[in-house]
Structures are given as C-alpha cells and as structure tokens.
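User: Continuing from earlier, I have the next pair ready.

Assistant: Great, send them over.

User: Here they are, in order.

Assistant: Folding the first of the pair now:
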Amino acid sequence: MIRHRVRATDAPAVVADKLESGECCRGRSASRRDRVPRLRLPWIAPLSDGPPVCRVKSTTRPRMTEDRLWLVARDKAGLLIAMMKTLAGNAHISFEGDLSRCVFPPELDRSESETAILRRQTIAPVQDFVLLRLEPETIQPILGTVLPESRFMKHVIHIQIEKDGVLQFAAYDNFHRDCVECGPGVPRELLERLRLSGVLRSYEADLRHRSRGSGFSDDLG
C-alpha cells in the first residue's frame, strides 16, 4: 500500500480521513519522509465536557473604562484582599466557578442572579455564580470562605468587583497574567505600594506590547 504524508496544508477533515483509512504512516518505524508532522490544528472548545469555555474575550463582556490598568499578581491572595478593602462600600463582588466548597454565611445575603455589570463569564459548562454585597463588614466573612485551601484559585475561575455601578476590578481565568485588570477607582498610589511590597509584579496601561497577547481588544463593546 502506498502511504501518503499528512501535509500541514491539509484540512482537519482530510487529516482524519487519512489517519482512519491508514493512508498515512504513524508508526515509529516509518521513514522520516513518511512520518506525520506535528500539526497545529484549530482547537474546538467542548460544549459540555472538558474545561470551561470562557467568554472573557467576547464583545458582550462589560467594558472597563479607558483608564483601566492591567495587573500581574505575584501574591494573588494579597491582591484580592487589597482590592476588596479598597473598593468596599456601595459595591458588589461576584465569584464564578465550582463553588460547592464555598459555603458563604447566610448573613451575606447572597444572590445567584447576574446584573448589568457583573455577569457570568463562562459560556459552557455553566458554572456556579454568586453575587455578594461588598461592605467593610462583609470583607472578613467573604475572605473566610474563599481563602482557606486556596479556594479562590482552585475552585473559583472569575472574580469581579463593581462599585457605584462601575466594574473596578476583574480577575479572570484564575488570575491569568493577561486577564487581571482594574479601573480608575483603584488609586495608582495603592498599586505602586503593592508593587513595592511584592504583591504585584507589575501594572501597566497597555497590554498590546507584551509578547503574549491577552485576546482583549480595544474595541470591546
């Protein structure tokens, strides 16, 4: 049987047909000329099983103001605590992910409904979503729920804080370095103190010059 090479220009369907029919060689004993090259095929996100499919890059995400800053956290717990303390008062915080281990005290008056600002950021599979009032007196009960066992990192995917109707802090995709931002409600003096103390690695106004793109676009609606 004549075996054909899988070419990088082949469509994914053609590659699958060749592999299934045995028209291409996959074994280690094949000559270098006939081996299947490594291909970077388009990844199609699952709709039910597998990792969550997030919509952080979607134009439906609430836009943070033009004064937003991108943050790279070294101490993620320290950053969350600082943002909560700074923004508490006429504010709300949302957590999204597997919240089965995050049993919030009933006095926090939790809600599972989205708002115009604090919305779910995962399309599928549907994650747990909780919205809580963020006031000075609710900081400790909230932290006492999400900090133990690093639940805010291991089980929570997205965290958002809204104050006075404006999205002021967001940490998406488990505090991914390209997915943490804050608005003008967070003073730059605080960010500089957090950088000097080691909580932040850096903060900057423009993400586009980084070697790794975030997927965020300046034309988000």
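And the other member of the pair:
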Amino acid sequence: MKSQTSNNRETISCWAGLWRAGSVSALLLVVIIIATGIVFAIEPQPLDGTALDWFILFQKNPLLGLVESELLMILYVIVSMPVALSLYILLRSVNPSWMIVYLVLGLLGVMCFIAARPAFEMLSLSKGYATATSETEKAIFLAAGQTLVATFHGTAFHISYILGSITGLIISIVLLQSNIFGKAFAYVRIASSICDFGLYIPVIGIYLSMLSVLFLFVWNIMIARRLWQLAKYGLEENVYKFDNGPLPETQM
C-alpha cells in the first residue's frame, strides 16, 4: 500500500493546473470580501426594509441594488468551487468519507444560497413597479417583492449558512489529519465556523458573524498561498525532494 506522502506527491504532480485555479479563486474570494465590505459600509443593506425600500434602492442605482442584494456573494460561492474541488482532490486520500460529505454539502450550500438571493428578480420587479400605471398593479408588484424579501431571510439562506459552517468544521478535521497543510489552516477555519453560529445569538450575534468573515478572509489568503506553492511543485517537481519528510512549509 502506498504511503500518504507518496500519494500526495503523485496527486500534486497531476493536478497542478487545478491548484493554480484554486489559488487564483481563493484570491478572488479575498477581493470579493473586501469589495462587499466597502459597499456595505458606505451603503448599509435595508435588511429590515420592505419591498418598497428595496424598489427605491434599485430605482436609485440598479447596480448598487444588485450588490446590496449580495450579487457579489453569489459570485463568491461560485468562485469558491475551484477551491473546494482542489481541497477535495488533495485530501480525499486522507479521509475519503468526510471529503465526499464535504463536497456534497458544499455544493448543496451553494445552490441554496443562490436560490436565497433573487437579486435580478428584485430588479425586474422594481422596474415593473416604477412603470405601473395603477395602484392595483403597484400592489401586485409590492406583494411579489415582499415574497422575495421573505426568501432573502428564508429557509434556503439558513440552510446554506449552516451548511457552510458545517463544511468548515469538516474540512478542518481532515486538515488536522493531513501532512499537506499545517494545523494553523484548521484552527483558523474552525474559528470561522464557530463564529458563524454567532448569527443566532441575540444582540452580539452580528458582531460574532463579522468576526467569522475576518477569519475566513485570513483563511482564503493562506489557502491561496499554499495552493500556489503546490502548483509550483507540480510544475517544477525537481525543486523539492520528499523522500520521507513532509511537503514544504506545512508548518504554516
């Protein structure tokens, strides 16, 4: 039977292109977090607002309305897939059972989040409301918009949010068993996942969830750097020698 280190060497060599894609994707996640944070700081979301509040926002600035509807976060979960796939390929030999659960739950979470963020639907309804010629038509658009507001805070969102936290804990457990990543990777992701659940704590919950984003920000940077190192090893296999030792810089 091949050792984990031997399997790791072969895997890293074969999938260098995916590691580069995952590294670039992780950096894009960092950029998206920064961009979203800046927009929300300048123009806070009308999270407690009605459909009319959202319509006014879209009519004032359609692009801002889309961003406030978390269009960038939809992009975030899509861009995160190359990272998730990279981690699955890298770590499936470490714990195949948990890694397939991680990948499946991650995909389910992405689909739920996209369903919970009807940004373009709200844009369309806001346009319809603006051009409505009667109070009856406006009432119809408002009712439809209020349904989308409920969707924004509804079941699909909470499923995606909880699944994101659970997959974070799963990947952390596997990271602790691997010699490809250092323990710091696992600890930072565990911190992010635990703080995620702060959203459900009254009063201070929002601050804990913001702390979770900070940990995730750091983790994405760490993952981007590590995947780039692995891509380099795959392209320049003669640079590193792994006879019996760990892969390079796993102590990070």
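Worth noting for the second one:
Residues 4-154+220-239 form one domain. Confidence is low (pLDDT under 50) at residues 236-247.
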